[in-house]
Amino acid sequence: MNTLLSGDGSSVRTPQSGIFALGTSSVSYLEFDLQPEAEPRVAAQLLADLRGPGGTTGGVNLVIGFRPELWRTIAPGESPGGIAGFNQDLVGQDGYTMPATQHDIYMSASGHAYDTVFDMARDAIAQLEGTARLVHETRGWTYKDSRDLTGFIDGTKNPPWTLAPSWALIPEDQPGAMGTVLLLQKWVHDARAWEALPVINQERVIGRTKLESVELSEDVTGPTSHVARTTVQVNGMEHKIFRRNTPYGRVEEHGTMFVGYSKEQSLLQTMLERMAGIPDGIRDALTYFTKPLTGAYYFVPAIEAIAAYETVQEEEN
Fold first, then answer.
1. Which value, to the nearest 10 degrees, does the dihedral of the CA atoms of residues 119, 103, 226, 28 take?
2. 136-185 pLDDT, tens per residue?
3. What are the residues whose beta carbons fall under 8 Å from the beta carbon of 59, sequence distance 6 or more?
4. What is the distance between the alpha carbons of residues 32 and 50, in angstroms, rounded to a whole number?
């Protein structure tokens, strides 16, 4: 097996470039399930062969992820402990439910033009034919100045670009180094109910001003605002995730693809539980105007973790 080494002899890991490839306007989100008799390692090899898991291919940035339990089977030494799929519905105290729709493989292809994204998505589906079947396909796109379809700017709470990797990526000295945990959810909006609200009420629901995205005091919004419920503090310090959300859908039915990366699955889980009101009975006000249709966790390995597996397969053959 060929392993890259740093100057001190330790292995070098590189995150998948598509995680941080900002500014792309078209995205295709694909989720696959393995065929019943498929060998999991073959699926990993086929995905690596799609472009070699390095940088951008043909103007398209890929992100490849695996159900945590599946990746642990494929490469146990490259898997962080304690992470699991979204295997059970998350149910709030009032019965509000975030459904579990876990699948085996995730891939996103993003780029500036949808034709190249479309071609890459087709290539991926063809590459996995006979090994994994496509279960969900959703097209995401940029709306105005990075706003979601509520009209508010999305991702305002993201850490600064220079700090995003430290929140999103597993540290170098841990199993799964330079990988990340991905939470993927498809949320559909009740556009009519939302748009019937006066802007001032919308702002109280979100916790920010609509035009400039200035955070409002909890004295103004109360504890139910989306900002308040999705802000997670540990020992008095706010812990952040890295969001890559996009709008999706058509005029009659649309919403948000939530794409959240974190080095800690527990942070993502806590955020969802707070939105559903599980710890304290206080439900996120935004959940009265949007609901999740899907929910899945994926582990997104470092580039070398996928490439090393491909090399092993070649040697075995």
1. 0
2. 999 999 999 889 999 999 999 899 989 999 999 999 999 999 999 999 99
3. 111, 112, 113, 116
4. 15
- Indicate whether 229 pLDDT > 60: yes
Q: Which of 104, 148, 154, 284 is catalytic?
A: 154
Contacts of 28 (CB under 8 A, 6+ apart): 108, 109, 110, 117, 118, 120, 121, 137, 138, 139, 140
Q: What average pLDDT is seen over the chain?
A: 91
Global confidence as pTM: 0.93
Using DSSP's 3-state secondary structure scheme, residue 312 falls into helix
Domain ranges of the chain: 17-316
Token pair in block for residue 301: 């390995």
- Whole-angstrom CA distances from 57 to 4, 81, 117, 146, 191 are 22, 31, 10, 24, 37
Please say if 154 is a catalytic residue.
yes
pLDDT in tens, 234-280: 888 999 999 999 999 999 999 999 999 999 999 999 999 999 999 99
CA pair distance 297, 294, nearest whole angstrom: 11
Distance separating alpha carbons of residues 181 and 201, to the nearest angstrom? 34
Report residue 113 as tokens: 């033009």
Residue 197 reports pLDDT greater than 90: yes
Tokens of 284: 């996120």
Kindly tell me the number of DSSP H helices and DSSP E strands found in the chain: 10, 14
Tell me: pLDDT of 191 over 60: yes
Angle at 124 between CA 121 and CA 125, to 5 degrees: 90
- Indicate the residue type of 170: I
More confident residue, 95 or 316: 95
Please check whether residue 98 is in contact with residue 272, taking contact to mean a CB–CB distance below 8 angstroms. yes
The beta strand positions in the chain, using DSSP E, are 26-34, 61-66, 90-91, 97-98, 105-111, 132-141, 180-189, 232-234, 237-239, 242-243, 246-249, 254-262, 290-292, 296-300
